[in-house]
Amino acid sequence: MKHVLVTGGAGYIGSHACKLLTQQGYIPVTFDSLVTSWASAVKFGPFVQGDLLDRDALDAAFAKYAPVAVMHFAALSQVGEATREPGRYWRNNVLGSLNLVEAMVAAGCKHIVFSSTCATYGDQDGVVLDEQSAQMPLNAYGASKRAVEEILRDFGVSHGLEAVVFRYFNVAGADVEAEVGEWHQPETHLIPVMIEAAAGKRDALTIYGTDYPTPDGTCVRDYVHVMDLVDAHIKGLEWLLEGKGCRVFNLGTGTGFSVKEVIAECKAATGHDVPHSFGPRRAGDAAALVSGSRRAGEELGWSPEHSTLPRMIADAWRWYQTGGYSG
Ligand code: UDP
C-alpha cells in the first residue's frame, strides 16, 4: 500500500482528502500541528502531530512512512487575518513549505500536490482568470502562496521535484456522510458563517462591502464543493505518479455568485433565513474571482459535479448539525 503524506490532514480540505485517499487504496499519513485543526478529524490513517517549521519532525515522518507523494494543504488561509498579521503568513506558509520541500529532497520523495489559491491572481477587473493570468496578489495570504509556487518551480529545476499546483477558488460544502467537515474557531468563511447565522449561533452575518463593481455591489466568488476539489487531488496525484510532470490547474466551476446570491440560496437549502447586515469592505478582498479555465477538465478529466450552491449549502448544513469537532 502506498503512503501519502498529507500536511494539514486534520484540517477542512485535508481531512476530506484523507477520506478519499483511503477509498482509493492509499494510506494517508496526516502531518498536522493542530494549530487551526482538530485531532478528532484524523479518521483515516496514521497521525503525526508536528509543525512544518520543525524539520526534524518532517524528516522522521519521511523516514517512518516513505511516502510516494505529499499532498500539502497545511497553511494559514484567512484573507482578513493575513492582512492584519502578514508575518505569520510568510513564516508559516512560506518557511513551512520550504522546510517541507527540503525534507522531500533529502528523503528522495519527488511528488507534491500543492494547495494554491486564486488569491494569487488578485483583482483583475473582468479578466478571465486562467492559469496564464498574471499573479498579482492583494494580500499576504495570496502572496505567500505565490511564493511557494515559485519555490516549487525552483526545486523542480534544481532537484527534479514534480508538483501539481491547484489554485483553488472558494471551497465549500462537506462530506455527504458528514464524517468530516469544515470547523474553524472562529469561523470567517462566508458559507459556514452563514450557516451559523441561519442556525442562530451568531446574531447576524455582516456583508463586507456593497459598493464593488459587480452586478449587485457585493463580491463575486466561484464556489467549489470540497468533494470535487479532493477528487481533483487524487487525479493530480495519479498524474504525478504516471510521470506526467509539473502542471498548474485552476479548480473552479467558471460560474460566480455574489455574497447576496449565496445568502439568497440559504433558505431553500436549509429552511432558515440568514439574518444579515451590511458593513464596510474587508481589507484584501478582490471584487470578483471566477475561474476561466477548462484545463483541469480537459487534461485531468475533472468534472465538478457536486458544485452547485444548493448542494454545497445543504451539505454544510448537514455537517453543522453533527456539532463538529471539539478536540
Ligand atoms: N464575506 C462576507 N461576510 C462574511 C464572510 C465573508 O461578506 O462574514 C464575503 C467576503 O468579503 C468575500 C466572500 O464573502 O467577498 C467570500 O469570503 P470568504 O472569506 O469565504 O473566502 P475568500 O474569498 O476570502 O477566500
Automatic annotation (TrEMBL):
InterPro entries cross-referenced by the UniProt entry: Epimerase_deHydtase, NAD(P)-bd_dom_sf, UDP_G4E
Pathway connected to this protein: Carbohydrate metabolism; galactose metabolism
Catalytic activity: UDP-alpha-D-glucose = UDP-alpha-D-galactose
Chain ranges of the NAD-dependent epimerase/dehydratase domain: 4-252
Record has Magnesium as a keyword: no
Root EC class: isomerase
SUPFAM superfamilies the UniProt entry points to: NAD(P)-binding Rossmann-fold domains
Keywords assigned: Carbohydrate metabolism, Isomerase, NAD
Cofactor: NAD(+)
Pfam families: Epimerase
EC number(s) on file: 5.1.3.2
Record-level Gene Ontology MF annotations: UDP-glucose 4-epimerase activity
Leader sequence residues: none
Keyword NAD: yes
Domain of life: Bacteria
GO BP terms: galactose catabolic process via UDP-galactose, Leloir pathway
Subunit structure and binding partners: Homodimer.
Similarity comment text for this entry: Belongs to the NAD(P)-dependent epimerase/dehydratase family.
NCBIfam families for the chain: galE
Name of the protein this chain belongs to: UDP-glucose 4-epimerase
